[in-house]
Specification:
The chain is mostly helical. The protein folds into two domains: 171 residues, no CATH class; 115 residues, no CATH class. Helix content is 74%, strand content 1%. It is built from nine helices and two strands; from the N terminus they run αββαααααααα. It has a two-stranded antiparallel sheet. α2 packs antiparallel against α5, α2 runs parallel beside α8 and α6 runs antiparallel to α7. The protein is globular and about 60 Å long.
Amino acid sequence: MLKHRLITGPLLGIALIVLIYFDDKIGCLACEYGITFQPGLLIALLAMLTAPLAALEFGAMANNANIRCSIPVLILSMEAWIAAIYFTPPTMPTTQAIALMATILVASFFTSIVYLSKGKELRGIISGSTFTLTTAAYVAMGFGLLLLLRRDHSAWWIMGIIATVKMCDTGAFFVGCNIGKHKMIPWVSPAKSWEGLIGGLVTASLTAVGLAALNNHYLPDAPTLTFGYAAFLGVLFGGLGQLGDLVISVFKRDSGIKDASSALPGLGGILDVLDSLLLVSAAAYWLLP
């Protein structure tokens, strides 16, 4: 498993760095038909390509937990929210933007009920439609907050958030494997230890400080981050990332599976990679200058 992790992880990292590089170069685009592409086009495309895979994994969990989930509606809801967040112009009045998101929510819930009842089987529609709606919103809104953050910041800031969170995962993994003795929440995630958590938070904090130094030197147009604030954000993002990981772990334990899927050798499924970012995106949007 470690061998596969050491191969898959760096390959994903390299691919993400390439995508971030070109996303930063593209910036904001306007096509001949009057459509304006906000900054973050490639990140939005990645989110829309990833969403169906996450939906399939949520569907597998629901099936194992005997929950009737509408995977097509789950996919469409994720895609609709991501597209709406990305394409909503900054000039749109706040009330209209809220109304757009609310309309997608209502339409998704209604469509899920209709889809699940088409076989004249009504048992489980409440839990199934609720599961479909909430998991779609959880993933799509997590992506959406990063897209909103991208409008006002360099794409490298998105890379910095991801790097901080994933370095926390890496630090927690290696410290926990080597000196982890005190289990944190064994009934949810048996492998996590308090020693691993501390190691991960320290790694995340040091990573954030290093990234702040690079930002202050190489991105003169970006806001400056003090090292103290960067260290605080590193600990916060790392901690929220671990909580996000535990959220999906709860889902997996409830459905009786170990990994969301085997799509990424050594890492598990798409949700096993995304889980630690979804909670962090909200904090990053509000706390980054």
